[in-house]
């Protein structure tokens, strides 16, 4: 089942399975310490007697250095006049030099000189150390911006690992005002750094915990036509798979046998597939799917710190006011009915103009573009410049697909919450416990019929009163299996 629209395969395009169309519906902080700029030179210390005023406190200070009684010392000075007797000079307290702001210190490290036209890796590390310790990072961003050095910071902290930490730190620890200053500079660096910046904003900043897939391998068949052999189970990105030319030709001819080998691997009754698995294997499928590191098309931008699917799902679910178990259930259902062959056919077809469904949540190219499903990770300018092939590539990447699916689930739920009292009578009859108003709230408060109904609507044109009850039940079963896996802790 897919978020998809019907299509007639065109010449040269690899067809994908048909489904119904989807119609879119509608502190700032102050800078701590001194202002930026060059450090103030420390004044020379004056040890002359004339450096002291004739006050009791000055007299007591002089007495500590001279050993004389304050009253006698002052009297002797008055009697002697300007050319009085020589003696030990009294030290003048030197004022403390103003402490440099973090922005000023960062600026020194990233500034170029006549013979210094590079920011070394060591200097980049020093910059990050300063920013990590900064208690007012938003204020530092504003000061760098006012000094026209924020763009230089983004450009010159360029080692992949350092840049990843920088953009994620700025995404995670700045307020809205400062973040808006950073955003255009990150956009200049490229989509992968926008994605890292926004993952930081969403709290995804650490690598996946260690996970041994070995004990779970028996759950994944070696047959590329079998269920649960796509990217969600295997971790192999769809961009890394291909379709032999002979099979491409047969798919173009719509040869029935070839088409079947590259189509949905669960024919007919979905419940029969679930019944073929033990409850333990079903929960272990969920665990394998969730604990694996994401399969991404931009691995270099993570600098070896790739998160798990569970980490990304938690962030996307939180951002869209749904449970991570619910989002994971929708994705697991799609991946159970996905094969390695179908992954390959869908991606190759998308790069040749077919409107196929791609990735973990099986999001259709046109739906991703029409419903603006990448807006949580990419800026408007970047999204507007994406081609269909670019969109397919991003949907093949787990982090983009997870956020796209989460946003689409929230869009469909919100649309359902706005339906009138007499709308969708068939849906209400099929799901008697359906509470459309509950869709406005967090999914933890939804009746189970709300999950069934939303599962049906996810894979077809939303709220048209034409139902896919089997898929709705399939999604609910996946939701239950995710909960049974224990990957996501129960809320307190």
From TrEMBL:
Residues 77-87 have a biased composition (Low complexity). Residues 1-13 have a biased composition (Polar residues). Residues 100-195 form the Peptidoglycan muramidase Tse3 N-terminal domain. Residues 228-413 form the Peptidoglycan muramidase Tse3 catalytic domain. Residues 1-59, 77-102 are annotated as: Disordered. It holds the Pfam family T6SS_Tse3_cat. This is Uncharacterized protein.
